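Justification of resources, computational component.

The compute hours requested in this renewal are based largely on the per-chain cost of generating structure records like the one below. Each record pairs the submitted sequence with a full structure-token output. That output is archived, and it is also reused by downstream analysis tasks.
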Amino acid sequence: MNNRYDVVIAGAGPAGGQCARDLVARGYDVVVLETESEDEFPRQSNKSTAGTFPSMMASFGIPDDVVMQYTDNVVLESPTDHYVQEQPGAVLEFADFKRYLVEDGRDGGAEYLFDARVTAPIMENGEIVGVRYNGDEEVYGDVVIDATGPSAPLAKKLDVVDLKRENHAIGIEYEFEGIDIDRPGFADLSDAMMLRLDHEIAPGGYSWVFHTGEDTAKVGLCYLQNEHHSRFAKDGHTVDDYLEHWLETDPRFANATRLEGKQHRGSAHLQLPERMHTDRFLAIGDTVPTVDPLWGEGINKCMQSGRVAAVAVDSCLKHGLEPTAENLEVYDTLWHRDVAPNQRKRLLMTQLLYLAPNERYDQFMNDLHRLDEETLAAANNGNILALAKLFDIDDAPLLARFAKQHLKLGQFL
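The structure output for this chain reads:
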């Protein structure tokens, strides 16, 4: 292995993998360092629900053979109601998907080093010039990219990101067989991705069922560990306890059994990013706080951030420019334009959604039924007029509580 490259990437997830693919396609020497061993990659504890849409598959050239199930609908559930919208999607086999990114990157010329835990930046004259891994091993690059997710060993030491605990979302998921996919009294989840808003199951968050074929599905939940969660949470309950409660009380799971080795955990942050780059350095993927609303489609966002990072690096190196913070500024511009547009509005939407009580979630389903899909799409993109159509006079106390919280934190628009 060489110890000098054009670009060093820490992390072989969707963001790091896609960034490597794009950079080698442009002719750069790239090495990707991954903590996990190649034989175990990716571990069951480091996965995603892997729901995505055809646009992502087409944009990044992802093959059909990493798809577990193509879906036709997105279903939203409240405690007593549901809403169904036609929306083609795909549930990926996340392990196959991540391994494909590695194989395709290698075919293009990227070098992958597994069992390589990145621990610290190597600094010269106040700038990062490489990374240290596995204790005393070193590798150098013109540009270094942190794609390690919330652990962010490089971005934190460079003071590029400040990931706050109250914005930390945790999740757990199992894969099951024997699920009653079309249970009377519930929405038909055949060929569907379902998200449920119900504080009894996921206080301050949401739960999901993603159909993966016949009577199998991915079932999980996540929530932010903040005051919204605390307001609805049960004392002493963990994320595992809430999932067990759902499995025990929902009749759709009465005869379901867990598939061996199919337990997944994950985390991300839901906050506004402050910085994403500095001299010779970029933070991408979940290393940058996630700011998406409920249907975040994290895989696509990570892939997009990896792609715009590759564009930013190329804009410097192909012209022989020094990769200073100023010359890498295009990364921030493209990230805000393509990865997370209207980020502040979308984050406020998410926080307001988690603040609502269960009764309001039931009413929300009625609101969805009466509005057209164009209005819903506009609301999801942060359009103020469209958002206003989702509220009425009875929401005044909820909006007042929301405004009070954000004025107190100095975050309100």
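The chain has a mean pLDDT of 87. Residues 156 and 162 are 7 Å apart (CA to CA).
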